[in-house]
Amino acid sequence: MQTLAQHLSSQGIQAPLAQLLTTLADTSKAISHAVRHGALAGVLGATEQENVQGETQKKLDVITNDMLKEALTADSTVRGLASEEEDHIVEVGQSGDFLVCFDPLDGSSNIDINSLVGTIFSVLPAPQGELSEQSFLQPGRQQVAAGYVLYGPSTMLALTTGQGVQLFTLNPETNEYLLTNEAMSISKDTAEFAINMSNQRFWEAPMQTYIADLLLGKIGPREKSFNMRWIAAMVGDVHRVLSRGGLFTYPTDNKNPEKPYKLRLMYEANPMSFLVEQAGGKASTGYETIMDIQPSEIHQRVAVILGSANEVDACLEYHGQDYSEEPSL
Ligand code: AHG
Ligand code: MN
Ligand code: MN
Fold this sequence. Notes:
It is found in: Cytoplasm. Its EC number is 3.1.3.11. By secondary structure, this protein is an alpha+beta fold. It has helices at about 5-10, 15-35, 60-75, 135, 205-215, 235-245, 265-280, 310-320; strands at about 45-50, 55-60, 80-85, 90, 100-105, 115-125, 145-150, 155-160, 165-170, 175-180, 190-195, 225-230, 245-250, 265, 280-285, 300, 305. About 45% of the residues are buried. The structure holds 2,5-anhydro-1,6-di-O-phosphono-D-glucitol and manganese (II) ion (2 copies). The site of 2,5-anhydro-1,6-di-O-phosphono-D-glucitol has 12 residues, from strand 5.
């Protein structure tokens, strides 16, 4: 089995990007170690702080953010970073080639129940000149690499540099990432969907109707039965979609009119969309392709519908229809 270093070299990845991806992978090994020690290391539970988005930070949100920030700050290829847990962008060096956006710990609500969590990252080219928030506001299409690390029963790294999606498994004996799937591929069709059903009454009409039709199974217009899964960590749900197909969505809702979307464009939606597209799937908001969105601010949130291409298309058909005459469900 190839190591990560051997794989990057065989793909012809240039030295600066290989260095950065190695930094991210090495840091994820340390995060995996901290997560695995859980209560023994005193890393469970919440802090008294909130992040810029008004969410209470878990201890592990802060610890993992600090670990990534420290490692990336010491990496000469990094010009700047943006994190879900940082209020503002952080300027790192004067000459690095890359900007890194990350969600240091995805699935924070799973930490205290010893369930799936992960890290998501996105690498963008650093523009010339002064660094500002504006430098980061590039469509996802510009990403040069993206990936996630899943701290599950085994620790896995899914990575794309635009040449498909490769999956590595951390060997606990050698602490080395080994290539265990060289081409992740999302089936075009699926009979599995992932959505937080408790928000049903707050969705827009197209999503209400689409999910209602899935739930009707064989007796509905889709004429087949669907199964449902929800891990409450995007990283886990997207990993399942990459492994065996499926549709994952966190759609628009009007539960809190000031916050119609949950997932963050720069730290979650864009990197996951890059992986999904590279594995043959699709990623949309319902109205536009996620990776084509021109970001307006670094902490921006978006609706996300991604996964098996034919199922995403089926969902998008509902979004193209006029619901103005229909009674709400
Ligand atoms: P984070 O832990 O980084 O804040 O992200 C959690 C996100 C995402 O991972 C997951 O799909 C979703 O929030 C879960 O939301 P609900 O708690 O509403 O199910
Ligand atoms: Mn997250
Ligand atoms: Mn997070």
